[in-house]
Amino acid sequence: MKQTTFTLGQSDMPKQWYNLAADLPTPMQPPLTPDGKPITSDMLAPVFPTNLIEQEVSRQRWIDIPEEILEMLAIWHPTPLRRARRLEEYLKTPARIYYKDESVSPPGSHKPNTAVAQAWYNKQFGIKKLTTETGAGQWGSALAFACNMLGLECKVYMVRVSFDQKPFRKTMMQVWGANCVASPSNETSAGREILKRMPDTPGSLGIAISEAIEEAVSDKSGKTRYSLGSVLNHVLLHQTIIGLEAKKQLKLAGEKKPDVVIGCAGGGSNFAGLSFPFVCDKIHGEEIDIFPVESSTCPKMTKGPFTYDFGDTAKMTPLLPMYTLGHTFIPAPIHAGGLRYHGMAPLVSQCIVEGLIKPRAYSQLKSYESALTWARTEGFICAPETSHAIACVIDEAKKAAQEGKEKVILFNYSGHGMLDLGGYEKFLSGKLKDSTLSDLELCESLKVIENLPKAKPQKTGKW
Ligand SMILES: Cc1ncc(COP(=O)(O)O)c(C=O)c1O
Fold it and tell me: How far is it, in rounded angstroms, from Cα 44 to Cα 190?
């Protein structure tokens, strides 16, 4: 029988996370206050616990994973590496396509890899309640799951359009004991202010983040903190178990290295989790093409500038050096809610500046077409976010066929779509449309960053 699944034993789970900041050829530019001064750790203390702030600023290459976190991750890890042989045959490609199956976690995506870690560090610090935002609902349900495991209270602000499109994600959060409200809401002043100006807004991740931070910092007991599902260094760090496991599994499959690595990218966490251990190999001389894939409806990496911007709409976060469409940008309501974020993780952004990775953008319709090809060859129904990675995989596999090259393509299967069938239903009945950002809309949305400090795109010019 031809082998399609490559599994590791629990004892093979990585015992340390990999920190790319230690290996980047040019150092990261620091987060800033609105008047351009570097942020200090104590400024972040009302928002995050000190132990996670230490990870956020760490330049240590390997960071030990505490035993209790490993035990929680072991509920679904190591996740399988699978070979998509049926897709290969359908595409008549000489490429060998592998995917890391992160859909097998209890909430159905990669998100609990960092949710359990963040909840654990918060609990160690004496925190009783976490607040957060969620787009598609995958992150909110992952944090609800993690808080339930650790006995913490959890409050989730879910972007309005996803709240309406995906009601069962809210139910999932409630099953794990969390409280989920639609954002913008009347529960915070940031939410009320936006509702007054735009009562019918579909919402955005930037708005939901503002609401969740506001609730955390206004708890006078000091026992509430905010938790972010992507973008920040420590979140990306926690996701690196994906790539570290995949490396070992590729060896089991008899492959020396991947030629192409692909992941969809909203704030950058699943892409970084899979790719950063391979970015490290590339820095040290390996030849690998690495593609983060965004939605063409929210094209920060392919159309936005690299500069300082706020991570949220109400400007509560520090200024981060990143690719951005402007912190007030509200993307059209595509079904891939997790890709509707205006910015990109600073670490991923710096890899783009260096030329180590090359961003791609795919439309909603092309991505759903690819999701159908996937489901009709491999069988699994993917999350709408993941379908963007699959669209890129299919193009790369076709390119390998044209060039007659036996490439090894590795991608992150970041989540399943079993709670996203509403989007599939609309696609199948021809009701979905594409919306591409025009140059005029882009200029308009970038006005909010005109007077903010500028990031310097520093690079070595090696890649
Ligand atoms: C299944 C899935 N994939 C990808 C993403 C995008 O997020 P990130 O770029 O942080 O991995 C999300 C976000 O909600 C998601 O739910």
Answer: 19
